[in-house]
Amino acid sequence: QRDAAWGEVARRLAHEIKNPLTPIQLSAERIRRKYLGEVGSAGREALDRSTRTIVQQVEAMKAMVNAFSEYARPAPLRPALLDINQLISDTVELFHREGQSTRIAMDLDSELPRIRADRNALRQVLNNLIINAQEALADNPAKMRFSTRRVSGNKAVEICLQDNGPGFPEKLIDKIFEPYVTGKEKGSGLGLAISRRIIEEHGGSIRVNNLPAGGATVIITLSLRQETGPSRPPDTRES
User: What is the tens place of the pLDDT at every residue in 53-93?
Assistant: First the structure.
């Protein structure tokens, strides 16, 4: 019921906020193009700075509205057999190719069976977790480690992401997966809420722990209801 209520809030906010954003951005860009060359040097600098700020803030609001909409209207799952180790490796490689300074090591169980899940939805969860850790570290170099293994008497798969960040605020850790609960200055506060919903829609669970020596761990457990064949060979590379 609580998630349904938040979904309704998100739908209403998305509708009320999204409509005026495009005309605001277009108007700021039009003002900049029309008047930037017609004012003096002092006025030109102020006009340039002000219109750029408007456009940047509109883009930030659009991203927030998109997160609202995504939380309010989740796409239906399309489960299929997939290799979770391969999905993790592909996701890590994408961050590496984009020139990210984040270093992500992998310790993946080569005997892990394939699971039945929605590839795009789980990729979104992995992306959310990596981005969440990056934002928590602010300007400090991010170091993470993905690991996978079989648990619960070989009836489930566990995916673990450990980072070197400050950890989750103790006062928030019990409700960190609720919408708009965040200890970071950046972000919409919906990434972990969306991730929890996706995992629970797969019949799994997700939890977080702070590490005694610093950093945090996010642990995902997914049931092996349907499986076939082993995953890719063990991967201990570091990107």
Answer: 998 888 877 877 777 677 666 678 899 999 999 999 999 98
239: buried, middle or exposed (CB in 10 Å: 19+, 13-18, 0-12)?
A: middle
Cα 154 to Cα 226: distance, rounded to the nearest angstrom: 12
Q: Average per-residue pLDDT in the chain?
A: 82
pLDDT in tens, 132-177: 888 877 767 778 999 999 998 888 999 999 998 888 888 888 888 8
For the segment 91-130, what is each residue's pLDDT rounded down to a tens digit? 998 887 665 667 899 999 998 999 999 999 999 999 989 9
**H or E segment and range at residue 221:** strand 216-223
Fold (CATH) for 80-223:
Heat Shock Protein 90 (3.30.565)
Give the span between the Cα atoms of 63 and 25, in whole angstroms.
Answer: 14
Cα of 67 vs its chain's centroid, Å: 10
Q: What is the dihedral of CA 237, 148, 77, 201, to 10 degrees?
A: -140
End-to-end CA distance of the chain: 41
What interhelical angle do 119-137 and 84-97 show, nearest 10? 50
| Packing angle, helices 2-35 and 41-72, rounded to 10 | 160
